[in-house]
Design goal:
Layout: H1 2-46, H2 52-72, H3 125-138, E1 143-146, E2 157-160, E3 166-172, H4 182-189, E4 200-205, H5 211-220, E5 222-225, H6 227-234, H7 241-244, H8 246-254
Parallel strand pairs: 3-4, 4-5
Antiparallel strand pairs: 1-2, 2-3
């Protein structure tokens, strides 16, 4: 479309220019003829013997030459070869190849489950969380993540069981004689289901629980794993703690 419009504009300009040339040539001829007529009239009136006919002939020839020159002036100096073909519309530059879709981030690697990783007696509080995560991975959880830290809202380990249950675990690495109290359970109970959307909520400690803590846990369907139960779980002498809560969790899911 751009090339066609350009040709139309070029033709219009050429026609306009040629028209102006013709008008100028005709005007020049008119001036010459008018001058010749004035000359002849003056000569006749004065009775002069000027050669009227030769002079008029010269003026007419000059006017004719001028008219011819003005008529062919637009075509002088133009190449006689074929007219160049105007370039076509510019083709868009090839776009850069689309970048491949970024791969989805891979799932977090499961914790190691060797004997060292499962030994909770040789670790500190932070290491204890990883030990519990390793127990979850060993017992068939395909997804396990340690999330403990500042702002964890009570969740230290979050795992998904082979049956699709979401397990939220709080780890209490306490020394002998330091029992988990009811306030610890209440803080965990306020977030494990409502915030972390747990199907199974578990508190694991290396120590023991107070009686009020156990009462609160029973009322809220929180599974409590003490030091003895932890040792049995580690030695594979007891089923994973989420198995004991599978039935209550299924009931909550149906509600």
């Amino acid at each position: 479309m751009t090339a066609s419009a350009g040709r139309r504009r070029e033709g219009s300009v050429r026609v306009a220019s040629l028209g102006r040339d013709v008008v100028l040539a005709v005007g020049l001829v008119g001036i010459c003829l008018g001058g010749a007529a004035v000359f002849v009239k003056t000569a006749v009136e004065t009775g002069g013997g000027a050669p009227v006919l030769p002079i008029a002939t010269v003026l007419l020839l000059a006017a004719g030459v001028a008219l011819a020159r003005w008529s062919i002036a637009p075509f002088l100096g133009r190449p006689t070869g074929p007219r160049p073909v105007p370039p076509g519309p510019m083709e868009p530059a090839p776009s850069a190849p689309c970048a491949p879709w970024e791969a989805e981030p891979a799932a977090a690697a499961l914790p190691e489950v060797d004997s060292t990783a499962l030994d909770h007696t040789a670790v500190d509080a932070d290491g204890f969380e990883h030990t519990v995560a390793a127990l979850c991975a060993r017992d068939g959880c395909p997804q396990v993540e340690v999330v403990g830290g500042a702002g964890d809202l009570g969740a230290d380990v979050i795992a998904t069981t082979a049956d699709g249950l979401r397990v939220v675990i709080q780890c209490k690495h306490y020394g002998e004689g330091h029992r988990v109290g009811s306030q610890d359970l209440q803080r965990f109970g306020g977030t494990c289901f409502a915030v972390h959307e747990a199907d199974v909520a578990i508190v694991v400690t290396t120590s023991d629980y107070t009686a009020p803590a156990l009462e609160y846990a029973a009322a809220c369907d929180i599974v409590c794993v003490d030091g003895d139960a932890l040792a049995a779980w580690t030695e594979s002498q007891a089923a994973p703690p989420w198995d004991a809560a599978a039935a209550p969790a299924a009931m909550r899911a149906d509600e």
